[in-house]
Amino acid sequence: MTHSLQADSGWRVWWQLTRPHTLTASFAPVFLGTMIALHYSPIDWILFLAMLFASLLIQGATNMFNEYYDFARGLDNENSVGIGGAIVRNGVKPKTVLVLALVFYGIAAVIGIYICSQTSWWLLVVGAVSMAIGYFYTGGPYPIAYTPFGELFSGVVMGYLIVIIAFYIQTDMITTEASLLAVPSTLLVAAIMLANNIRDIVGDEESGRKTLAILVKRPAAVNILMAFFILAYAWIVVLVISGTLTPWTFLVFLSVIKPIRVVQIFKHHTAPLKVMPAMKDTGKTNTLFALLLGIGLLIEYLL
Rounded to two decimals, what is the model's pTM? Predict the structure, then answer.
């Protein structure tokens, strides 16, 4: 059976432009940070929704900047896998993609100002830095995504930092517990980036990128990805044993089949289209882990 990439039509053109399989990298940390905050103060659901919407907009805009700048540098074509394909397959003008990304950023900034007005104006600085990193991830003369530090920046900003901000806007504080519980999110968001780089390792190397996967070579990169997964789950075990969490948070292990399948796919397949299911399962691992951990915290709170 041959696999090919088809052009999208209608609303799917714009939906695929956001790279929906990556949007969980924004939703999951916001939910987790809010569930941690539940143990400290009542939840302001308007702030929760504002934070969630702003995070999704920033992630979507970051993906659009990626789409635009990779095309502008000649790195994407109609056969590229893992992109939205709006420009190279669906005929959307590059300028339209760039403008839409800036509009997303503008709306996120307005929402961010509202959040700051209800909490702390210091968050304006944090938000501005996060948005700048989102832009320079693939924009500017030295894109972060083309370096070995892509996993670090994506994990810290879209994993750790979002959990902490979501917690802070509800409680007006930062605690050791919140920081500890943000670690798995950091690892799993970094895993999304690493999985992406493993899939694209051949094309990235040909285009001169120096990603972590290229530096350590594919077999080692897959092992690092596996280590990210193992550390995320082991972290919860350690926190339960230490008494920081209750056994209810072992609910996260209901999702463990996903990362196992991801590693198996990467070990047995190298073709980009063949490993696309692994990309989706990496995103699902991040989502399910945070949801199940949050549910465990919610049960602990209710009991």
Answer: 0.88
